[in-house]
Amino acid sequence: MTHFLIKIVGKEEFLKIPTPTIGDISLYFHLPFCKKKCHYCHFFVIKDDESKQEALFKALINEVSQKKNLLENKKIVSIYFGGGTPYLFKTKFFKEIIQKIYTLKAKIASEIEITIETNPEDINIEKVKALKDIGINRFSVGIQTLDNKLLQILGRSHDRLKILNSLDMIHHSGIKNVSIDLMYEIPYQSTDSWYKTLSYIPSMTMNHISLYNLTIEPNTAFFRQKDKLIKMKPSDKIAKKMLIKAIETFDANNFKRYEISAFAKNSSFSMHNIGYWLYRPFIGYGPSAFSYYNGIRSQNVCNFEKYIQLINQQKNAQDFIDDVSYSKKVKEALAVSLRLIEGIDINDFEKKWGKIPSDLEVVLNNLCQSNHLIRFKNRIKLSSLGLLFYDSIATEII
Ligand code: SF4
């Protein structure tokens, strides 16, 4: 991996984030257990259950063996335990999974990043220390907001006090890399409530923030009350004001925006997520887990029992393989890489994906002319206007 540095090119200044090297790979484990389902959640989750944890653990070990050939001669640079609430999974299961990975014929990066997703109400210092001892070195905490009323509306099980205590415990256990998720555009959220949440930023001990706007997705409790809740969401104008205030607050507290929704202090970028934005291959394990390997995206079956059954019968658990055309893949890759604030080095991009097709060049030129993109020497990136309209820009490119 290259080193972090700030490059100055003429008047353009940008954060240089590490570019994946050929042979680098990441692993993703989907642990779907939650104590209850939050009202906005559209992920594949099931109720936490001891016997299901045991069954999943055995299946994951099996799936790691089944896919071991995919990792030969590769270097594992990150492992991500996502969900669900992976923190609920037993420590001994994490230990055995990590040990199993370390026995494969893959190199392990000396600075490997191993992340676990957690919720504030579950954190206790003994378990954090035990997870640290087995090699987990990054915690991602689902905070969303520090407004207790909004937390209830979202169906979360924590309150502000639990948030602040959980971050203290993680900090005191010696985990240095901590990310929090924050959310705006929540129904009934006022600017005052959002500014109050932001006022806690200087006193919290994370070094990474992921910022999301809430969308009401099908198959959620929110979706069933969609008509009522949409009216209670902040207007587009207010949402933009909230976003700008958040960016300003993060910046004032040294959290630099390096991706549309990600902010890092002292270049504490998420190595795992950088892989998604720059098309590093990754292998997914567990029900509903995605993989991206040899340029092909696939997904495991989104059904717990079926996943366990398939894996136990030594069968492939994938039920979706993305077979889009190569030109569509190039367009998707360009749109996704543009999420990075530093933008794209066209030479590097073309080395990996081949020459940018002429119809795409036309779209990029038009976006430059409308001031949504900036082209400077061999780089192309979102302008400050483009940053506000990324979704429509991506649609135009793809
Ligand atoms: S804790 Fe996370 S994964 Fe679990 S239900 Fe809530 S939002 Fe979904």
Distance between the termini: 29 Å
Kindly state the number of beta strands. Answer: 19
Percent of residues in helices comes to 25-40%
- Biggest sheet character: 9 strands, mixed
**Which residues sit in consecutive blocks of at least 5 with pLDDT less than 50?**
1-13
- How large, in whole angstroms, is the Cα Rg? 21 Å
Q: What is the overall number of helices?
A: 16
Mean pLDDT: 93
Class computed from helices, strands and strand pairing: alpha/beta
Strand content: 25-35%
What is the general shape? globular
Strand order of the largest sheet: 11-12-10-9-8-7-6-3-13
Bound molecules: iron/sulfur cluster
Structure characterization notes:
The chain is an alpha/beta fold. 39% of the residues lie in helices and 25% in strands. It is built from 16 helices and 19 strands. Strands 11-12-10-9-8-7-6-3-13 form a 9-stranded mixed beta sheet, sandwiched between helices. It has a 3-stranded antiparallel beta sheet with strand order 14-15-16, with no helix packed on it. Strands 17-19-18 form a 3-stranded antiparallel beta sheet. Helix 1 packs across helix 11 (304-312) and helix 6 (191-199) packs parallel to helix 9 (236-252). The radius of gyration is 21 Å and the shape is globular. The model is unreliable at 1-13 (pLDDT under 50). Bound molecules: iron/sulfur cluster (SF4).
